[in-house]
């Protein structure tokens, strides 16, 4: 019954509410910025290499990598597979569209986070949607509600799903038992994660932070090998994607389960453009102009969706293996990779999922810490409270491994949707500030200057700001 209720809320939230809000916001930002996410793509790449003003501070690249680490995870593998198996191959096309359009939302939210960021006594920066909602809109209650949704998303919804996705990768092995294996995997994952959160396992965290980027690159390379081995089927594969994407009779005949809705859902879950998560990392960067971080964050969206999600989609579709509800999730990807690498392929996916899941679980709680500090009147909660919170988070991870797939996805979709429905309208209200900031950046570039931002140059009240005075 609970799963049925969650599914109903999930369906209504994404169609018609979220799909309309996201489309209007993305198109509005794209038009207002004259397609900044495409037009200034070369500038975004160039800015990645720009060092911070002070070596002690976080650079644009470092802040982008933090947000990318949170975005890249099990959703790039299992999320894409689920979208294709349940929605159809056309989901890939709608993922691409929402990625390109949504990148403009990523620019706006990260630029706003930079403008309204706060300063710690030691000079480090912090911020995010809660801070620009509070300072720019003077709406502290709305800011607090956003933080509640953020905690619900990253400590509950996403961690439930991440845990489920990980245990599902073991379903292809002979030792897997539906009644016992999820409990065992959930318990192991919960204990290890809880141990690391409570201050132990520093070596584990350090090791995975080094291995995960390498594993991400290896995943793309292996995907390319599978695609190239099936190169003759690529033309028909793209024809299948576009045919399914524009089969409007089928889409409108069953909207909730269509390739369009699944493409939007899984694309948003994967790249998080407009959700309001990445701005928490963006605010930590020390740059000379807020537009710089906005431009850099558009690249994170592209890396996640156009590179990693596309690698999964094309590998699975080009392999020609059967897609159905029965194999939706990790099994579909494992079946595809095994066509070239045999038994080694599924094992590689399992290892990749373990690493991605572990870093995602810890990365999710980075955002939660910021929200808890905001709700605690900008003060770090007590150690006792945080320890209890981390133990509760570990229990949620255990529960995630044993709940049904539909419940895990619906919980993540609903909590993430709540964040988006607060953040995107706020960004639309404040969008003019970000657009003026972009124009100021481009004007200085045309004049041959190194862009430096002053809030008064675009008419902002400096009393609302810690920086840019």
Description:
By secondary structure, this protein is mainly α. Helix content is 74%, strand content 1%. The chain is built from 19 helices and 2 strands. It has helices at 2-32, 36-39, 41-48, 60-71, 74-87, 91-115, 129-136, 140-168, 181-197, 202-229, 234-245, 248-253, 259-271, 278-282, 290-319, 330-341, 344-375, 383-402, 405-446; strands at residues 118-119, 125-126. Strands 1-2 form a two-stranded antiparallel ribbon. α6 (91-115) runs parallel beside α13 (259-271) and α9 (181-197) runs antiparallel to α18 (383-402). The longest helix has 42 residues, at 405-446. It is globular, with a radius of gyration of 21 Å. The protein starts with a helix and ends in a 23-residue tail after the last helix.
Helix content: over 70%
Low-confidence stretches: none
Question: Largest beta sheet: what is the strand line-up?
Answer: 1-2
The counted number of beta strands is 2
Structural key phrases:
single chain; 469 residues; mainly alpha; two-stranded antiparallel ribbon; 19 helices
Please describe the topology of this protein.
Layout lengths: L1 H31 L3 H4 L1 H8 L11 H12 L2 H14 L3 H25 L2 E2 L5 E2 L2 H8 L3 H29 L12 H17 L4 H28 L4 H12 L2 H6 L5 H13 L6 H5 L7 H30 L10 H12 L2 H32 L7 H20 L2 H42 L23
Antiparallel strand pairs: 1-2
What's this entry about, in short?
The protein is mainly alpha-helical.
């Amino acid at each position: 019954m609970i799963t049925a209720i969650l599914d109903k809320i999930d369906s209504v939230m994404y169609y018609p509410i979220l799909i309309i809000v996201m489309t209007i916001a993305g198109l509005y930002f794209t038009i207002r910025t004259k397609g900044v996410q495409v037009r200034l793509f070369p500038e975004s790449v160039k800015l990645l290499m720009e060092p911070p003003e002070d070596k002690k501070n976080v650079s644009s690249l470092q802040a982008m990598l933090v947000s990318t680490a949170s975005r890249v995870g099990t959703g790039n593998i299992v999320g894409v597979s689920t979208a294709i198996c349940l929605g159809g191959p056309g989901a890939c096309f709608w993922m691409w569209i929402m990625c390109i359009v949504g990148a403009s939302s990523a620019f706006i939210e990260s630029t706003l986070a930079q403008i309204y960021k706060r300063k710690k006594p030691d000079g480090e920066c912090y911020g995010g949607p809660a801070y620009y909602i509070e300072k720019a809109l003077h709406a502290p209650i709305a800011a607090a509600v956003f933080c509640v949704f953020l905690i619900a998303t990253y400590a509950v919804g996403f961690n439930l799903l991440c845990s489920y996705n990980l245990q599902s990768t073991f379903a292809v092995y002979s030792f897997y038992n539906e009644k016992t294996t999820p409990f065992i995997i959930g318990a192991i994952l919960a204990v290890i994660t809880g141990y690391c959160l409570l201050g132990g396992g520093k070596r584990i965290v350090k090791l995975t932070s080094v291995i995960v980027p390498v594993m991400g690159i290896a995943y793309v390379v292996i995907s390319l090998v599978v695609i190239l081995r099936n190169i003759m089927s690529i033309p028909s594969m793209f024809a299948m994607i576009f045919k399914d994407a524009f089969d409007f009779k089928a889409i409108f005949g069953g909207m909730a389960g269509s390739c369009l809705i699944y493409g939007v859902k899984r694309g948003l879950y994967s790249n998080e453009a407009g959700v309001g998560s990445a701005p928490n990392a963006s605010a930590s960067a020390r740059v000379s102009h807020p537009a710089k971080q906005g431009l850099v964050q558009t690249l994170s969206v592209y890396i996640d969706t156009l590179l990693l999600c596309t690698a999964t989609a094309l590998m699975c579709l080009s392999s020609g293996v059967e897609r159905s509800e029965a194999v939706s999730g990790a099994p579909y990807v494992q079946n595809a990779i095994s066509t070239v690498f045999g038994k080694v392929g599924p094992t590689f996916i399992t290892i990749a999922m373990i690493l991605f899941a572990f870093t995602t679980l810890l990365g999710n709680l980075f955002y939660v810490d910021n929200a808890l500090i905001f709700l605690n009147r900008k003060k770090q909660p007590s150690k006792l409270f945080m320890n209890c919170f981390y133990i509760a988070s570990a229990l949620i991870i255990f529960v995630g491994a044993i709940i049904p797939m539909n419940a895990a996805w619906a919980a993540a979709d609903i909590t993430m949707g709540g964040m988006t429905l607060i953040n995107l309208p706020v960004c639309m209200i404040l969008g003019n500030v970000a657009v003026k900031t972009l124009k100021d950046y481009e004007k200085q570039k045309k004049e041959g200057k190194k862009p430096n931002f002053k809030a008064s140059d675009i008419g902002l009240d400096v009393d609302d700001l810690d920086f840019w005075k």
